[in-house]
Amino acid sequence: MTTVDITVDKDRCVGSATCVVVAAGSFVLDEHDRSEPTSQAGSDLDGVEQAEQLCPTAAIRVVRSG
Amino acid sequence: MELTAPPDETLVDLADIDLYGARGFTVRDLHPTWRTLRVNAPVWWHDRPGETGFWCVTKHADCERVVKDHRTFSSEEGTILASVGVGDSAGGQTITLTDPPEHALIRVPAMRTLGHAMVQRRAPAIRERLVELLRPCAAGEVDFAHLMRRLPMVLAGEFMDIPERHWDDIALWAGACVAPEDPAYALGNSPAQTLRLAHHHLFAVFRELVRQRRAKPGDDLVSVLIGVTDGLTGEGKPLDDWRVLLNCYSFILGANTTTPNVASHTLLALTERPGLWAQLDERALPGLVEEGIRWTSPTHHLVRRATVDTRIGAAEIKAGDWIAAWVASANRDEDVFDDPFTFDIRRSPNKHLGFGGGPHYCIGAPMSRLVLTMLFEELLRRYAVIELTGPLVHLHSNWINGLVSMPVKAIPR
Ligand code: HEM
Ligand code: SF4
C-alpha cells in the first residue's frame, strides 16, 4: 500500500497561508503563523501537491513510499 | 544608503529623528537611528507637523507580527510611507493592496506562474538572458548599478513575456515611480510631473501587452491576470482592464525596486571585503544571496493601517493609525541575529524579513533567489576580482535602499 508522508519545515515556513487556501482543510497555521498538515491532509493529495508547488519557500514536502 | 557597522555606543537623539524626509536616506546610514529606536523606543510615534504621523516598529518580532497579522494590520490603503494619511488610489485593486481572503484571487493564480516548478522550467532561458546582460563586464569598467537595472527585466521578459525593446524604458520608468525626487530619474520638471509621465508611459506599454494577450493568450502572467475572476467562490466577472493594468504595475514595481539593489549592494559588500571573493564557491552562493538580501533590505519599510484598536508592546494603537514596520531594522535586530552588523555568508539560520512575511511574502522570492544565485555564479566563473573604481551614488528614497551608480572594474580569471 502506498503511504504518503506530508511535512512542513517550520523553519522555512513564512506563514503565507497559500497552502491553507489551495488545500483547504489539509493545513492550518499554528499560533506562530507556521503551517502544519492536518490529519485530513492524506485524503486530498491533489490539493497537497499543489500546495507543495505553490509554497513560496518550498517548505512543504510530500514523500510517497511503498 | 551607506551600510556600515555603527559602534555600539552610537545612539542618536530621538528628537532629531526624521524617517520621512527622503534626503536623509540618500547617503547617511540610518542603522544608528534604527538601533536607537530598537533600544530606547521600539514602538515610537513619528510626528509630522501638519500631517498625519505614524508608528515606527523596529524590532524583528513586532515587524513580523505587523506583516503577518493582516486582520489587525491591513494593506488595503497603502503599503509605503507615501500613502500615510492619504491612502493609495489602487487600494483594494492589486495583489499588494488587498487583504485576505480577496488577496488569494490574484495571488494563487499568479503563484502558478512564479512558483518553484515554473521557475525551474524557465531557468535555462533566464540564464541565457543573464549571460547576455553581463557581457559589458568583459570590457573591464562598467557601471554595475546601471547594468543591474536590466536584471529584473531579464525576469519580466520571461514571466510577463515583455519584448526586449521595452526593457530599458520600463526599468527607467519604474525607477522614476519609486524615486521621482532622484535626479537620476527626473523625467519632468518636478517630482509630481516625473511621476505622472512615468505612470503614463508604463501604462501605455501594459495596455499594449494586454491587447496582445487578449488576442493571443500564453502561459505568461499577463494572460493569467486577464483570466482571473473576482468571485471567491470560483464564479465571478473577469478583472476589468484597469485592474489588470494596476496589477502589471505591482509586479513590475515589485521586481524593479528590489532585485537590482540586492545585486549591487551584495557585490559592494564583497568589494569591501576583498578576501571573501576568493573563498566563494558555488555551494556558498545561496548563503551569499540570503545574506545579501538581509544586508541590503531593499525595502526599508512596509506600511500597514490598523483596522481595530490594538497594542504593540506597551503602545496603544488606535484603529486607523498607520504603522511602518522597518524591516531593514528588523534585519539588524540583536535579539535575532548574532553580530547583526557582520556580513556573514554562512549565517544560519537567516530569518531575515527582506521578503516580508505572511500573506504578502514576496511572490517573486523563488525567481529572485534563482537569478541572484545565477548572477554571482556567472561573475565568479569569469572574474578573479571585481573592484570599485569610482564614487557610489545612492538613491533618494525613504522606501528603497538603492544604488544609482557603482563603477566597477572586473578582472578576468
Ligand atoms: C531580492 C529581490 C526582492 C525582494 C527583496 C523583494 C521584497 C518584497 C517584499 C518585502 C514584499 C512584501 C511587501 C508587503 O508586504 O507589503 C514583496 C512583495 C511582492 N514582490 Fe517582491 N521582492 C523581490 C523581488 C521581486 C520580484 C523579482 C518580483 C516579480 C515578480 C516581485 C514581486 C512582488 C510582488 C508582486 C509582491 C506583492 C505580493 C503580495 O502582495 O502578495 N518581487 N517583495
Ligand atoms: S505555503 Fe509554505 S510558507 Fe506559506 S504557510 Fe504554507 S508552508 Fe508556510
Description:
The complex is a heterodimer of chains A (66) and B (413). By secondary structure, chain A is α+β, with helices and mostly antiparallel strands. Chain A has a single domain, classed as Alpha-Beta Plaits, CATH 3.30.70.20. Chain A has two helices and four strands; from the N terminus they run E-H-E-E-H-E. The longest helix of chain A has 10 residues. Chain A is globular and about 35 Å long. Chain A starts with a strand and ends with a strand. Chain B has a single domain, classed as Orthogonal Bundle (Cytochrome p450). Chain B is α+β, with helices and mostly antiparallel strands and 413 residues long. Chain B is globular and about 60 Å long. The interface between A and B is medium-sized, with 15 and 22 residues.
Structural features:
heterodimer, A: alpha+beta, Alpha-Beta Plaits, globular, B: alpha+beta, Cytochrome p450, five-stranded mixed beta sheet, 12 strands, 12% strand, binds protoporphyrin IX containing FE, oxidoreductase (chain B), cholest-4-en-3-one 26-monooxygenase activity (chain B), Cyt_P450_sf (chain B), heme binding (chain B)
What is the fold's blueprint, element by element?
The complex is a heterodimer of chains A (66) and B (413).
Chain A: E1 3-8, H1 18-22, E2 27-29, E3 35-37, H2 45-54, E4 60-65
Antiparallel strand pairs in A: 1-4, 2-3
Chain B: H1 31-40, E1 43-48, E2 51-57, H2 60-68, E3 73-74, H3 103-114, H4 116-133, E4 141-143, H5 144-148, H6 151-159, H7 167-178, H8 191-215, H9 221-227, H10 241-256, H11 259-271, H12 274-279, H13 285-296, E5 302-306, E6 310-312, E7 315-317, E8 322-325, H14 327-330, H15 365-382, E9 383-388, E10 393-394, E11 403-405, E12 407-412
Parallel strand pairs in B: 2-8
Antiparallel strand pairs in B: 1-2, 3-5, 4-12, 5-8, 6-7, 9-12, 10-11
Bound molecules: protoporphyrin IX containing FE (HEM) and iron/sulfur cluster (SF4).
Iron/sulfur cluster (SF4) is lined by residues 8, 13-19, 27, 35, 51, 55-57, 59-60 of chain A.
Protein name (chain B): Cytochrome P450
Keywords (chain B): Heme, Iron, Metal-binding, Monooxygenase, Oxidoreductase
Organism (chain B): Asanoa ishikariensis
